[in-house]
């Protein structure tokens, strides 16, 4: 079932390895199945090279397996919680990307000091609570944090990045951009004191990016 969604989710895992966001089997991507109370997610602890479309697992929005040969990701209940409580979200990504996870280890939000941050995140990238892996506590922390923010990414304390998007590709983009600005802001702090962008300019940049960046619709 849902071969098209399985294919998208399987292929997007290649973006995580391609951008250096994951080590070994850490991290995961999921997608909501359009029009259904279902999600597609990777199996737990399987090498990225083995993540074919057929290896993906279909679950309901309480994390129960509906179809699949493998056990689903350990973060399935967290993803399911986010889909239940953020109906506008179509894709979720989790990584332990190194620079962003370093900020998460320090429990420090990444301040909005770059135009690229204002564009993609609309402000700082916030920190969510520490939560144990396996249940839906991570999902609760992700939803509670992102509801008070324009950011599509949250740094879960002592853990790593959870990024969301209207599509799974948009969630992957947010995870890629999160690591990029985490790295640059870290480098800036080695050189001096990064200067936050004034709030009104953050708003203008974010607004322009959402309305005018890229190509107009065909
Ligand atoms: O964060 C964790 C464990 O710390 C997990 O998200 C792993 O990074 C990936 O687990 P699977 O998706 O392979 O179960």
Automatic annotation (TrEMBL):
GO terms for cellular component: cytosol. GO terms for molecular function: aldehyde-lyase activity; L-ribulose-phosphate 4-epimerase activity; metal ion binding. The keyword Metal-binding applies. Keywords: Metal-binding, Zinc. Its cofactor is Zn(2+). Pfam families: Aldolase_II. This is L-ribulose-5-phosphate 4-epimerase. It comes from Spongiactinospora rosea.
């Amino acid at each position: 079932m849902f071969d098209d969604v399985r294919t998208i989710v399987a292929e997007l895992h290649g973006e995580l390895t391609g951008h250096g966001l994951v080590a070994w089997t850490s991290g995961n991507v999921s997608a909501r199945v359009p029009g259904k109370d279902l999600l597609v997610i990777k199996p737990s602890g399987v090498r990225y090279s083995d993540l074919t479309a057929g290896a993906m697992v279909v679950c309901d929005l309480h994390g129960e397996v509906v179809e699949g040969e493998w056990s689903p990701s350990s973060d399935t209940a967290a993803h399911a919680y986010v889909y239940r409580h953020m109906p506008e979200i179509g894709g979720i990504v989790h990584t332990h990307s190194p620079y962003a996870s370093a900020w998460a280890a320090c429990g420090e939000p990444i301040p909005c000091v770059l135009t690229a941050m204002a564009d993609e995140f609309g402000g700082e990238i916030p920190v969510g609570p520490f939560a144990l892996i396996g249940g839906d506590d991570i999902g609760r922390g992700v939803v509670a944090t992102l509801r008070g923010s324009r950011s599509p990414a949250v740094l879960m304390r002592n853990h790593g990045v959870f990024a969301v998007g209207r599509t799974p590709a948009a969630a992957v983009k947010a995870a890629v951009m999160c690591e990029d600005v985490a790295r640059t802001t870290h480098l800036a702090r080695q050189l001096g004191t990064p200067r936050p962008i004034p709030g009104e300019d953050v708003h203008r940049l974010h607004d322009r990016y959402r309305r005018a960046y890229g190509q107009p619709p065909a």
